[in-house]
Amino acid sequence: MNRNLFHLILIFFCGCLGVEAQNDSINWLEEVRLSDVKLKQNSEGQFVKELGDSLIQQNEPLLTSLLKFNSPFFFRENGYGMVSSASVRGTGAAQTAVVWNGININSQFTGQTDFNTINTQVFDNISLRPGGGSVVYGSGAIGGTIHLNNDFSFEDGSNNDLQIGNGSFETYQAAYNGNFSSEKTSLNIGVSGISSENDYKYLGTDKQNENGDFYNISLNASLARWLNDANIIKFYSNYYQGDRGFSGTLNLPSNSKYEDRNSRNLLEWKSFTANLTSSLKLAWIKEEFKYFENRDSENFSFGEAETGIIKYDLGYEFLPGMKLNLIADYNIIRGDGSGIDNAERKIGGFSALWNHDLEKLTYEFSLRQEITDNYNPPLLFSAGGNYRFSENYLLRINTSRNFRIPTFNDLFWQSGGNKELDPETSLQGEIGNEIRLQKFQINLTAYFMDIDNLIRWVPQENGTWRPVNTSNVHNYGLELFTNWSGAIGGNILSLSGNYAFTKSIDQETKKQLIYTPQHKITFSGAYELDSLVFSFQSLYNGSIYTSSDNNYELDSYKLVNLGAEYAFAKSPETSLRLQLHNIFNEEYQSMPSRIMPGRSFNTSLIIKF
Amino acid sequence: MNYKHLLLLLSLVFFFNSCDDDTDCCPPLPEEEAEFESGIFVLNEGNFGSGNASVSFIDKDMEQMESKVFMNINGSELGDTAQSIELYEDFAIIVVNVSNKIEVVNRYTFESLATIDTELMNPRYAEVTGNKIYVSNWGDGMDPDDDFVAVFDLADFSFIKSISVAEGPEKVLAVNEKLFVAHTGGFSFNNIVSVINTGNNEVEDEIEVGDLPNSMVVDGSNLWVLSGGKPSYAETETAGKLSNIDVSNNQVVEEFDFPDSSMHPNNLSLEGSDVYLTIGKTVYSYNMSTMQPSSEFKLEEPALLYGFEIHNGKIYVASPNADFTGDGMLYVYNLSDGNLTDQFSAGINPNGIYFND
C-alpha cells in the first residue's frame, strides 16, 4: 500500500490535513518496541498492571501460579497443572480475555483460556487490565484482559538467560531466553518447558494425586527488522505443546489424558509517514486438543480450530497527543471436531479510536461494530479519561460496553448447539484513584457491571442440554493494587499487596454466583542484601459458593511461599534460588474434591550472560 | 468389602434361609432400629466428581425429611454419583456410578451390609432375581464393545460372572427366569432389549425395539418397553415407540409409533390397570386398547423430571436445580388432578424415588 492511498483514506475520513507534519519519535519508539501499543495508548480510565520479566522468572512457569499470587483475580484449578480458569471481577471463566501480543487467544470451543496451558517464561511481560476491553480485544474482554507480550529492543547487543530447576513431585523445568539486536534488527528466542509427576499427597487423607502427570513446552520467536527509516516488519510466533493426565478427584479416579497443541503467528508491517502510522497485521492461530477418556486406549475426542485475521490500522496524529485510529479487520474461523462438524464463522469489524492527551487530562473514545451472520453484533464502545489533580493524585473514569460471543460449542455442538444465541453483553463503569507518594503507590478502583444475556447450558424439558441466553448479573466491587518500596538498613525492601472485594449477584435469585470469592488478598515482598535476596508471597482466598442456591461452599484458605536467591558469581551472573511453597501445609481446594498440593519446594540455577 | 459387614450379612442370609444346616445361627436384628420402616427414599446423585451423593428419607406421614441417611447411619459418605437403588426383600442395593461400587444396606435400618467394588465399571442399574444381583455396566464410555452385566451372589456378594452385552445397558427387569436389559446406548444410541437367561447367565436373545428404550413395565406375560426415540441432535431425530414383548418367546407382538419425531416419551408407569408416561414435563395417560396417549396435565414446578414415580395415586418427581448445583426438590402431585400436594427440599441433584411400605 502506498502513501497516497493513506492520504486518500485520511481525506475521506476527516478532510483535515492542514496540520503541521511532525515526527514524534517517542510514539514511534513505543510503536516499534511494543507488540500491543493500544494497551499503552488506549487504556485511559483504566489501570494496567505490568508484571515484569524478573517477577515472571521468579515464579513457576504456569500462568495460574504467577497470577494467583500477584493479582486480585481468583483462579479455579482442578489440581496443580490441571485445567484452570480465572474469575476477574466476579465474572465467569469465559469473560476474561487472554491476549497474546495484541490478539485474543481464547479458545473458539470454550471461549476461555486454560491458564495452566500458558507457559509464562517465554514472555517479556504480562499485563493485567481489569475492566472491559472488547472494542480493542474482542470477545470475552468483560471482566478484564490478561496480556502476554514480547517486546523488541534495538540496542546492538545480546543477552541470554538460562534457568534450570527441579522440585517436589519430580518436577523439572528449564527455560532459555535470548535477545539479539542490532540497530536494524531485533530477535528474541524463548524456550521453556516443565514436566512433573505431580503425585502429591492429598492432605488430610491417605490418598495422593494420581494420573496428574504433565509436561509442556513453549517455543517463542519474535523478529523485527527495519526495512528503511519508515517501515518495519515484525513477526511473532509461539508454539505450545502440552500433555496432561487429568488427575481424578478425591472420589473419582481418572485415567484420562489431554493433549494441547497451539500455535500462534503474527506478521505486522508498520509504516510511519509524518503524522501517519499504518499497520497491517496478518495473524494465523491454530488450536488443537485431543481428549482420551482412557489414556491406554486409542479412542479420543478432539477439536481443532484455525483462525485467520487480517487487520488494517491507520493512525493519524492531528496534533501532538491528539490521535485517531481507524481499524478494519476481517476474521475467519474454521473449527472441526468431535461434536462439531466443520463449523465456520466470518466476522468483519470496523473500529474508530480517538485519543487526546492534554496537559492534565487524557481521554479516549472508541467504537467498534462487527458484521457477521453468526450472531447479532452489538455496537461496542469505550469512553474514559484520566485527570491528574496533582503529582500525587490521578483520577480515572471509564465506561464501556463489551461482549462475549457464543462459542463454537454453544452454536454448533451436535447435541444441543443453539444457533439463535445472542452474545452476552456488559455495560460497565468504573472510577479509579491513583495515589503516588514517594515510596508508596495505591490504585483503588470501584466498578459496576451489568451483564445481560448470560449464556448457560441448561437442561430442556426433554432432558437434553442446550445453551440459552438466561440471566442478568450485576457485578460490583472494589479492587486495590498497592506497592511500597524503600530502603531499610541500606537495603531495598519492596512490598506489594492486592485486594479485591467482589459481589456478583444473579438478578433473579439475588444470590452470589458460584466460584466467585467475595474477598481475595495477596501480599508479597522482597528484601535485598547484596547478593542475597529474600522473598515471600502470600494470598488469602475467601470462601466460595459451589451451588447457585448458596447452600454449599468451599472454605477460605491462606497460602504462604518463601524464597531465597543467592548470586554467587558475577561473570557470568549466576545465582541459585530456593523456594518453599505453601509453608504452612494448608489443605485447600478451589474446586470441590480437587485437592491442591501441600508443602513443596523447588530449586533453580539461573545464569545470565 | 468390609469384613465385619460381610459376617453380619452372612449371618443375615443364613437367618433368611431358616438356618437349615447351621448349628450356630445368627442373632436377629434389633427391631427398634428399623428407623426407615415406612416412607420414601430420595436418591441424590450429587455432583459428578465431588463425592457428595446422598439419600434423603421422608416418613410415611410426609412430615419429616431426613437428609444424608447413609452418612448418618454408617458414618461415611455414600460416594460419587449415585445412579439407582434396587429394593429387594430387606436389602437396598445402591449403585454408585462414578465410584464404581455398590453399597448394600438394610433397607429398614440403612446399616451397611456390604460394599461391592470389584468387577464394576460405570455401573447403572441393579436387579435381584434367583438370589443373584445383576448390574448393568457401560464399561469405558468411549468403548462401544466392553459393556456388560455383572452378576453377584446375593448370599455373600461374591462375583459370579460378567456377561458381555451390546452397548449402553441401562434398566434391568427380571421376569420369570429372564432378565430384560434395555440398551439406551450409553454415550451412543441403541435400540435393543437383550434377554439374559438367569439359569445359565447367557444372553439368549436381542429384541429390537425403538431407539433409546428408557423404561419397562411388566403386566402378566407382557413386557411393555417404552423407547424415547433419538433426540433432535442425532443425525435423524426419531419418534418414541411403545413395544409389547411376549416374555415367553421374546417376540414383539405389537408396537405403537408416536406420531411426531419430536415426541420423546419417558417414564412408562403402571398404576393398577392404567398406564402413564411423560413427554417433556407433561404427564400422559395411555389407552392400551386404542393405543393413544392423551394429555393429562403439565407439571410446572420441576426444572425437569429427573426422577419420576407413580405410587398409590400420587406422582413423585425428583428435580434438580436447573444448573445442577445445590439442593433439588421432591414434588408430590395428585394423580387424579395434577395438583401439587407436597414439596420437600432434597439433596444435591435428586434422580430417583423409592418406597418402603
Automatic annotation (TrEMBL), chain A:
Any one GO CC term of the record: cell outer membrane
Domain TonB-dependent receptor-like beta-barrel: 157-583
Keywords for this protein: Cell outer membrane, Membrane, Receptor, Signal, TonB box, Transmembrane, Transmembrane beta strand, Transport
Family label: Belongs to the TonB-dependent receptor family.
Name by which UniProt lists this protein: TonB-dependent receptor
Transmembrane region(s): none
Subcellular location(s) per record: Cell outer membrane
Chief localization: membrane
Recorded GO MF terms: siderophore uptake transmembrane transporter activity
Domain of life: Bacteria
TonB-dependent receptor plug domain sequence ranges: 63-145
Species annotation: Christiangramia crocea
UniProtKB/TrEMBL annotation, chain B:
UniProt-listed Gene3D superfamilies: YVTN repeat-like/Quinoprotein amine dehydrogenase
Signal sequence region: 1-20
Protein's UniProt keywords contain Signal: yes
Record keywords, A-Z: Signal
Superkingdom classification of source: Bacteria
Transmembrane regions: none
One Pfam family in the UniProt entry: DUF5074
Protein name: YncE family protein
Species per Swiss-Prot/TrEMBL record: Christiangramia crocea
